[in-house]
């Protein structure tokens, strides 16, 4: 196979890039296992955009920067919020059906937002609706084709990246990584099975820089019941008035604080218990409202024996989103020629140390489009047939890795635990988990989603981005 452009990943970022690339040549979009299995499909909460009458892009920009705790790339944030409204209008023109109040778009609020600016679709299936819209648009274009594979094992490099190994070698003029996140490296996660950090591993092995990988966001409220998956209980419930209660029924935190603050408050409350969960209570809104506003969440909880209209649901934090990833500029270019990245696998610095709720879908749409446009410009470099693999296929993953990551690289960290994690993960040849542990150990402070009990305060010495590259140590810039 010799497409002009290879897009690895079929979530929102990959699909939006494919649409942008279609006018410039043939595009092959490949996905791991299933074309419709991505984090985008599970994104319930919504997509944040400054389109409401009482909102401004400057306010969205400020909220994003405040949530990022001193590490946001201000240029990236400005790009996100400035280009967001046009991106939403484009989705609507392509058929996206966002929830409305009469003829007007309906906005709600989530944690750390100063305005109601979060759009939803079908109550709690926003990511699925956006992915559906982009997929329908992409398949309507004659130059775009799709294939699923059990794995994409490695990138092909010469003087830069020019392909990947699927069932066999696939050469292209430019390659986009849109492989999503890495939550499955943790024992408890809201992420789908495919979110194992493959894109970061492939890019790192090809020589690309990885940045801010220590910042992993833990969603405060995932379903915590024996025999049930850690299904995401959207922050939008708290935006609609849901409160967090301990085992005695008392409230113990500000529900719409930034996610890292709420997650740590829940962990502390569980330790006091001691219990394995707390409770999220929206019963005062009544069953009819909850059924209509959150149909997917309501039915899932009901399946496991909890009626949200009459009882509180047990919840606990779970690994949810990676702020860091393959280092890129604002057009998706990595530090390796011919290799681009967009969406959760990439790190533009837009999220800083802690992502603002519902900015991830917007990031995928905005930066997926920008990466596609930049790839067209880079397409003059023809693929070289003498490409070689960037690395040997990775060793099989160990069942010990999720436990190590949860215990030592989780919501609360410390130096001794991180050193132990590094030692154990080196023995297991675990590329991405080891990157997280090494960068977390090197960041001797607490900031955003990275909290260390031995360094509990922010430090001006670390108001910088971590950078790590193959065969080198961790640096800050």
Biggest sheet details = 5 strands, parallel
Q: Write down the Rg.
A: 21 Å
The CATH architecture of the largest domain can be given as 3-Layer(bba) Sandwich
**Distance from first to last alpha carbon:** 39 Å
Structure described in brief:
The chain is of the alpha+beta class. The chain has helices at residues 12-21, 39-42, 57-67, 74-93, 126-139, 198-205, 235-239, 259-272, 287-293, 295-303, 360-378, 400-408, 415-427, 431-442; strands at 5-8, 27-32, 47-48, 100-101, 104-105, 107-108, 118-119, 144-149, 154-157, 161-165, 169-171, 174-177, 210-211, 216-223, 243-245, 278-281, 313-322, 325-327, 339-341, 346-347, 388-389, 466-468, 475-476.
Q: Can you walk through the features of this model?
A:
The structure is a single chain. This protein has helices spanning 12-21, 39-42, 57-67, 74-93, 126-139, 198-205, 235-239, 259-272, 287-293, 295-303, 360-378, 400-408, 415-427, 431-442; strands at residues 5-8, 27-32, 47-48, 100-101, 104-105, 107-108, 118-119, 144-149, 154-157, 161-165, 169-171, 174-177, 210-211, 216-223, 243-245, 278-281, 313-322, 325-327, 339-341, 346-347, 388-389, 466-468, 475-476. With 477 residues, it is an alpha+beta fold. It has three domains: 5-214 and 323-389, FAD/NAD(P)-binding domain (3-Layer(bba) Sandwich); 218-317, Succinate dehydrogenase/fumarate reductase flavoprotein, catalytic domain (Flavocytochrome C3, Chain A, domain 1, Alpha-Beta Complex), CATH 3.90.700.10; 400-476, Fumarate reductase/succinate dehydrogenase flavoprotein-like, C-terminal domain (Methane Monooxygenase Hydroxylase, Chain G, domain 1), CATH 1.20.58. Helix 1 (12-21) packs parallel to helix 11 (360-378) and helix 3 crosses helix 4 (74-93). The mean pLDDT is 92.
């Amino acid at each position: 196979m010799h497409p002009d452009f290879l897009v690895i990943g079929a979530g929102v970022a990959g699909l939006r890039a494919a649409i942008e690339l279609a006018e410039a040549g043939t595009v092959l979009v490949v996905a791991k296992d299933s074309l419709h299995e991505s984090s985008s499909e599970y994104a319930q909460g919504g997509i944040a955009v400054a389109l409401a009458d009482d909102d401004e892009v400057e306010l969205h920009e400020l909220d994003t920067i405040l949530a990022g705790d001193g590490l946001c790339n201000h240029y990236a944030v400005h790009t996100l919020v400035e280009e967001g409204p046009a991106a939403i209008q484009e989705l609507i023109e392509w058929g996206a059906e966002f929830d409305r109040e009469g003829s007007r778009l309906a906005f709600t609020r989530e944690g750390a937002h100063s305005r109601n600016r979060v759009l939803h679709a079908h109550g709690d299936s926003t990511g699925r609706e956006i992915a559906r819209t982009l997929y329908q648009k992409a398949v309507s274009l004659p130059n775009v084709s799709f294939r699923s594979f059990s794995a994409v094992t490695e990138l092909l490099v010469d003087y830069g990246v020019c392909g990947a190994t699927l069932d066999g070698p696939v050469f292209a003029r430019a390659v986009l990584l849109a492989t999503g996140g890495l939550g499955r490296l943790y024992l408890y996660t809201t992420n789908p099975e495919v979110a194992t950090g493959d894109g970061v591993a492939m890019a790192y092995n090809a020589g690309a820089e990885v940045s801010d990988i220590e910042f992993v966001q833990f969603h405060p409220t995932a379903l915590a019941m024996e025999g049930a998956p850690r299904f995401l209980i959207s922050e939008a419930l708290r935006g609609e008035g849901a409160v967090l209660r301990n085992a005695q029924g008392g409230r113990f935190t500000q529900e719409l604080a930034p996610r890292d603050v709420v997650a740590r408050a829940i962990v502390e409350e569980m330790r006091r218990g001691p219990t394995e969960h707390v409770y999220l209570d929206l019963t005062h809104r009544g069953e009819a409202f909850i059924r209509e506003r959150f149909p997917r969440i309501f039915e899932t909880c009901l399946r496991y024996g909890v009626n949200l209209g009459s009882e509180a649901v047990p919840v606990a934090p779970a690994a949810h989103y990676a702020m860091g990833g393959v280092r890129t500029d604002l057009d998706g270019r990595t530090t390796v020629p011919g290799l681009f990245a967009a969406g959760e696998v990439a790190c533009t610095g837009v999220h800083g140390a802690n992502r603002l709720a519902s900015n991830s879908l917007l990031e995928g749409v905005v930066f997926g489009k920008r990466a596609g446009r930049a790839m067209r410009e880079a397409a003059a470099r023809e693929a070289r047939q003498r490409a070689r693999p960037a690395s040997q296929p990775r060793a099989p993953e160990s069942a010990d890795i999720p436990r190590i990551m949860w215990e030592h690289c989780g919501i609360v960290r410390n130096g001794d635990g991180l050193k132990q994690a590094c030692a154990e993960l080196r023995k297991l040849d675990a590329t991405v988990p080891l990157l997280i542990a090494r960068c977390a150990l090197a960041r001797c402070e607490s900031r955003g989603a990275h909290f260390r009990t031995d360094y509990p305060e922010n430090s001006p010495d670390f108001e910088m981005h971590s950078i790590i590259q193959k065969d080198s140590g961790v640096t800050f810039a």
